[in-house]
Fold:
Amino acid sequence: MARPRGDATARLLARLAVLAAIGAAAVLMRALGQGGLLIAGAGLLGLMVCAAGLWWFLAHRGAVRLLGALTAVAAPIGVLVLFTQGGLWLTALVSSLCWGGTLVCARAALRVSSPERPIRATAAPRPVRPVLIMNPKSGGGKVGRFGLVERAEDLGARVIMLDPAVRPDVAALARRAVAEGADLLGVAGGDGTQALVAAVAAEHDLPFLVICAGTRNHFAMDLGLDRTAPVRCLDALTDGEELRVDLGDVAGRAFVNTVSFGVYADVVQRPEYRDDKAGTALSLMPDLLGEEVRRLDATIDGTALSSQQALLVSNNPYVSPDEFAGAGGRRPRLDGGELGVLGIRVESAAQAADLAVRGSQSTGLTVTTAQRVEVTSAAGEIAVAVDGEALRMPTPVVCSLRPGALRVLVPRDRPGVVVPEPVNWRRLLRLAVGRTERTPEGETRA
Structure:
């Protein structure tokens, strides 16, 4: 059952959110004669013009790109100058602060009223013959900087250090370790390397240890690990617990985070991308966003999705990409048993502006979940980025999910996952007036 104190706190926060929203509207209404309507209109127009400028900057070269950059920068500056010259800056500031308070209180209220259920953890015995594969170059040398080899060996683990001079077969190394008696496999490296070893661990039903020594460590983040201190991940070897999480599959290859098709996948194929990510992307974008470029088609659980510029399929869905949802790069769960799907089709400055204003309600954005995604293209082979690794695969490419396939060993003492709650205004209003509903599990919520 829901806790009474938690319900009371959630109702208070919801009412504060409603009052703050009313305050924001009241400030604008009070200043209506002195420019309240102008504030709202100018802010909205500035957002649209800025988005259009960004589109011109990305999709064109030469003078049009320069014009786009100037427009994207000038739009918000112009709005601020308008507010200042018109004596509206204080009204705009107070209204913005009220609206910011609305979002903070609303997300807190929804999170308290219906807290995210953590992935169920079970007690795990201490591994006897753990084997850890470490990439010394990953994350700019985190393995050496944090003394991961020495700490792992002190805890009784065998460490296999990858040779930066050659491209090793990481999966083969993991299989050899299993054949030699390993009862745990772990990786200190990027998410692409994590996925390869995770697939071997799942194949043999062995626990898998994630050591966040990569650059971004998205998988570690969504497992609730401390990305600032990779050495803390090794605590799982002596005081750990086990999580059962899903494992993605793309054409027979495992992935722990995402599979990308289209624009991003084409960019990461280029050899120069590793040394100059931003420059490579900007030089290629006009060609990749042009009308003559082949688009992607997909079938999502039997439903067609056509002519996409980019498609992202994730191991469990990410938080809604709405501008009001926050934390779009986080996954609340890794054991939900569904793929997340994000399709993008933006072909003009007007569509870019629409996307900036309407978010996931825009016609240029498709956000859904699925059990199976099949991606096709007029080309017989397409670029695919699997957890950031550049590959090419023959079409059609099928993505699916293996629910609960991976046993992940994590330290008992870890920060955990905190994902800001997307704002559901209907739920918020029900909560504010004290109305609740009973969930299938027998708990009450707004």
Summary: The CA atoms of residues 55 and 156 lie 54 Å apart. The longest strand covers residues 397-411.
